[in-house]
Amino acid sequence: MNAFILGNPEKCIGCKACEIACSVAHLDISVVKANEMNIPFISRLNLVRTSAATMPVQCRQCEDAPCANVCSVGAIVHKDNCNIVLEEKCIGCKECMLACPFGMLEMQPKSAQGEMEFQAGLKVESINGEQQKAYVVMQKCDLCTGRAEGPACIEVCPANAFVIVNSEFIRRNLNQKRISSAQEIAKCRYIRNS
Amino acid sequence: MADKNQGNIKIDIELCTGCRRCAEVCPVDAIEGNDGSSQSINIDKCVMCGQCIQICSAYASVFEEYPTSREKKLLERNLPETLTEPLFAAYSIGDLPKVKEALANSAKFTMVQCAPAVRVSIAEEFGMPLGSLVPGKLAAALRQLGFNKIYDTNFAADLTIMEEGSELVQRITEGGTLPMFTSCCPAWVKFVEREYPELIPHLSSCKSPQQMAGTMFKTYGAEKDSIEPENIFSIAIMPCTCKKFEAERPEMNTSGYQDVDAVLTVRELAYLIKEVGIDFNSLLESSFDKPLSMYSGAGHLFCATGGVMEAAIRTAYEMITEEPISDVNIQYVRGGQGIRRGVVKAGDLKVKTVVVSGLKNVVPILEEIKQGDADFHFMEVMTCPVGCVSGGGQPKMLLPKDNDISFKNRISSTYRHYEDQIYRKSHENPEIKAIYQKFLGEPLGQKSHHLLHTEYTPRREGK
Predict the structure, then answer these.
(1) What is the model's pTM?
(2) What is the average per-residue pLDDT within B372-389?
(3) Would you call B152 an interface residue with chain A, using a CB distance cutoff of 8 Å?
(4) Angle at B120 (CA atoms; ends B115, B125), nearest 5 degrees
(5) What are the residues facing B352 on neighbouring strands?
(6) Could you tell me the domains of chain B?
(7) Which residues in chain A are closer than 8 Å to B127, comparing Cβ atoms?
(8) What CA–CA distance (Å, rounded) separates B112 from B104?
(9) How does pLDDT run across B286-320, given as a tens digit for each residue?
């Protein structure tokens, strides 16, 4: 079963530190200070703030993933227990973006070495002449696979508002529920005496 | 500069998400608002330490729209319009426009000073390792920016020790108000003025090194270079956001003019260096200008918690005993956030000291003093976690875990730089001896008292 990261609206304080950490963790250079960040923060999770809930939302790593099912170039594959985008294959058709029931896939500009990347072929015609066009690809949560410290969002959160839902978590969670379910049933005289 | 009555620390209500992490680090509970709603700053309580700026992670996302454009926000913050870094909800109002104007005005003679903590952090803004020590590159960058005189706050730190050490000895031997408090941290001073006005007599009457330097620029410095003080524009490069407030205090004009005209934080200086297109990392090392720049290792220690105490003990010891101190390294005053108490034996006298780092930690000690239970002579207080190396105007880390590394590295660079100095004690600095001989007279003398000491303002009636 695929693992995924789940935010807890009871604990989240809405500080956006997870978005920053996510963004920085997915750069191909090390950025430590604010003034070294010369491109926008491009986060693979999003802090949602509404009157009903404040919490980060991110990819559920679906088993029968609609994003992968609709991808016409096979750019979304399952690897290391999660669904990842092969950015070099992605053509930016946006099918997956529309197919995702959680709104967690978004076309985002790609960067390299701390600079925005531009397309090799497609250019923008404008009154100022031909201009470069941003290189935009699908980017989604990859559970920070390969990162020694684990997922950056979980590591940075000051409110401890994330859980990683993996088979161990689910086993523990289900077992607890089953035990309490059994205890509830055991209290019921009608069933006991039948 | 920000409206004097409004403070220079702000929270952008369009960006603030109400996570209140800033309220957790605010030492004076000045940040007000409900969870999840935009916060506001109680300017009476705020000590402008800028720790809220350092913790804030509520950034302006390019994927969201805000009523005020980025261009307008940059303008409101006095930041260069070419700035590409993210904007956060908590910020301080900058002073770059004033400084650029002065640099461009040929009628102005610019004199700049750099706090000790600047040389152990500025290189970080150009991608060098955290805590890199770069006094030579810093001087070179300032020279290339076109400042007429590159002076040093470290020199004034030695001057502060001469005055403050003498004041301590005088209070101990002649029965003045004790314990005496250091007065170089402007946030701490403002805190005493508002929260403990009845303890104001405990504050050393010494101006901070920034303000002593500013006064010397427009008096001694003006004389040296035969320049009218009114034509001098005095700039301080500081790791601190509250130094802007200190420079604007109405009494800080003993030279006859505002002693320090503008204060730039380390971050602002880095913006300026970048905007002008200086390649900081490849700068050839330069040196600071004589005479207001020579410093002892003791003066340099001012940027770390315990440093003012250590420098003061070295000088006060020798003033009391008239003998050299056996070990200049006073280890017990060094350390991290919290309280460190100790005793120094100077002849027959046992001088009891307290070092406090992190303004919140001082409250129980002030209560102790109010109760009459305090038995010590001298207390150093620095508002920021581990002293000025961790100031609100220092480079902002994106992830809080990197703060610990930067603080540690900046402190170790500080002690390394201290050990590199020829002189280890402020009173042995030859330029300090010379300035007393040629200009100031004696410490606590009439002239030095007039120029280098100040008064404080109760900001509330005693509790």
Answers:
(1) 0.94
(2) 95
(3) no
(4) 105
(5) B343
(6) 1-93 (3.30.70.20)
(7) 36
(8) 15
(9) 999 988 999 999 999 999 999 999 999 999 999 99
